[in-house]
Amino acid sequence: MDIFSKIAAGEIPSYKCAENEEFYAFLDINPLVKGHTLVIPRREVDYIFDMEDDEIARYQVFAKKVAKAIKTAFPCVKVAQVVLGLEVPHAHIHLIPMQSEADVDFKREKLSIPAEDMKAIADKIYAEFVK
User: Fold this and answer.
1) Which among 38, 42, 39, 40 is positioned nearest to 9, based on CA atoms?
2) Active site includes 94?
3) What was the pLDDT predicted at 9?
């Protein structure tokens, strides 16, 4: 079981933003901006394009709902969707609230947000997601 599967299963703590039976969304612990969220399938699949067509469609619809919750919780111009990363062998989408394209520069320094603030951010997104 990879680290993201352990997070989705509750074996490793996370800041949950949204979930259903197939997908799980949680705050990135090294965020580019406040509200930077990862969306994963609960099923272990390394490469997003290895997902079946109907599954990837449901994944995108779930991510869209999470993105709308993020945009409501943290008003921004748009919520960027980025698929990248080789460090974890589990498909994941980065949803990043952005005011400019600079907010999606993965080479810049990541934020350090205290745990209580991370919880408040996740709770705010979750509250919008379940509306």
Assistant:
1) 42
2) no
3) 94
